[in-house]
Amino acid sequence: MTDTSALKYTAEHEWISLDGDVATVGITDYAADKLGDVVFVDLPAVDSGVSAGQVCGEIESTKSVGELYAPVAGDVVAVNEAVVDDPSLVNASPYEDGWLLKLRVDPAAVDGLLDRAAYEALTGGE
């Protein structure tokens, strides 16, 4: 089980786990719950670059279509093909099996993101 207090978060409901200069990115359980049953995920191509705060993918559910924002700038080094094949993983396991992409980043860029307490305050404690 992922220690959610060790992650960083964005106001757009993405989480980041940093390992050296590689950031694993996904959406939070709060976002997955609000979206409803995820039925389609569109992710950026490996070796493409993403810019902080810019749309880099799409998550479609039975309720709506949501945009995936890059939490920090970086180069895409991996995408979770299992989620592309089975989008329900985003709902079932948002912090483990439902991760979306891995970015090579400047580790200092993550410092400005929200910690768990700030994210919970943003979402009303959920």
TrEMBL record:
The modification N6-lipoyllysine is found at K63. Residues 22-104 form the Lipoyl-binding domain. Transmembrane segments: none annotated. PROSITE patterns: BIOTINYL_LIPOYL, LIPOYL. CDD domains: GCS_H. The keyword Nucleotide-binding does not apply. Keywords: Lipoyl. InterPro entries: 2-oxoA_DH_lipoyl-BS (IPR003016), Biotin_lipoyl (IPR000089), GCV_H (IPR002930), GCV_H/Fam206 (IPR033753), GCV_H_sub (IPR017453), Single_hybrid_motif (IPR011053). Binds 1 lipoyl cofactor covalently. Its cofactor is (R)-lipoate. Gene3D superfamilies: 2.40.50.100. Belongs to the GcvH family. The glycine cleavage system is composed of four proteins: P, T, L and H. This is Glycine cleavage system H protein.
